[in-house]
Design brief:
By secondary structure, the chain is mainly α. Helices cover 48% and strands 1% of the residues. The longest helix is centred in the middle third of the chain and has 21 residues.
Length: 283
């Protein structure tokens, strides 16, 4: 069930410097734990009151024909794409800083998430959901990576800066921040408001195929035709390994650490077990 409570502004702290750190050094510094949930999306955890799908700056029905490269269709698979100035500016910005593969992923995230919620009759703010989905992987873009933060926090912070420059109200920016920061933690995100939950559900579906059976075959075919995958699996793996190599301690207790351990010899990031038994208690 979504938590309908108000959202406060989220701030992230600064982590320890990590380049070149060894596992022994990390344990010696007592590196902190930030618990992560599973990356798979749990669409069945999404619930809400029966209702027509959301309001917000919704687009007029349309199709992809006659569009320029920077335009988006009015609808894809029956899902309306917002046409507000903010939605258009966000899409242009994300397209300009992302690879084509990453841009298509964030668009599919919105479409998959919207389809799942629309079919359940969940009310949500369509513009807010679109903006959050479009911006949710900025932390994978090299220009927005910090040396220490998790990629989700880097992305949330970059989105916050962009949206503040667009003069989006602070309370709406806070929802986008939470949606991005929580999107890999479905166990928490799906208990939040719909605009937060659907980013986790939509991105998880595109990443793992979880709940794909809930997407009608004709809708899936249309989504993949408009926003093709274009080697998304390998691209995602390359991004994960890049994070593991360039700022390994940012994946401490993160699911991505398992990828690092599999592919990178002498990967320096301690496991949860390592951290537990390195705790400075006598027993």
């Amino acid at each position: 069930m979504f938590d309908k409570s108000d959202f406060g502004k989220s701030d992230s702290g600064k982590g320890d410097a990590v380049r070149g750190v060894t596992r022994r050094a990390a344990l010696g510094r007592g590196a902190g734990i930030a618990a992560m949930g599973a990356t798979s999306a749990l669409a069945t955890a999404v619930s809400g009151p029966p209702a027509a799908a959301a309001t917000g700056a919704a687009a007029s029905p349309g199709n992809a024909s006659g569009r320029t490269a920077d335009e988006l269709p009015g609808t894809v698979a029956g899902v309306r794409i917002p046409t507000s100035e903010l939605a258009r500016s966000t899409a242009r910005f994300v397209r300009s800083v992302s690879s084509g593969t990453l841009f298509n992923h964030v668009m599919r995230t919105y479409l998959f998430g919207a389809l799942l919620l629309d079919r359940q009759g969940v009310r949500y703010d369509r513009e807010l959901a679109f903006v959050a989905a479009a911006l949710h992987d900025l932390g994978l873009v090299e220009a927005y990576r910090t040396p220490t933060e998790r990629f989700e926090v880097d992305g949330a912070d970059a989105a916050q800066r962009f949206l503040r420059a667009q003069r989006m109200p602070a309370e709406r920016v806070a929802v986008v921040w939470d949606a991005i920061a929580l999107h890999t933690n479905a166990g928490i995100a799906t208990r939040k408001r719909p605009e937060i939950a659907m980013i986790s559900v939509g991105s998880g579906l595109d990443f793992t195929g979880n709940e794909l059976r809930r997407i009608p075959s004709d809708a899936l075919e249309e989504i993949l035709a408009v926003f093709p995958r274009e080697g998304f699996k390998q691209d995602a793996l390359d991004n994960i390994l890049s994070l593991c190599r360039t700022k390994p301690m940012s994946v401490l207790t993160h699911p991505f650490a398992e990828v690092g351990r599999r592919h990178i010899p002498e990967f320096p990031v301690p496991t949860v077990e390592d951290l537990l038994f390195a705790a400075p208690f006598e027993e």
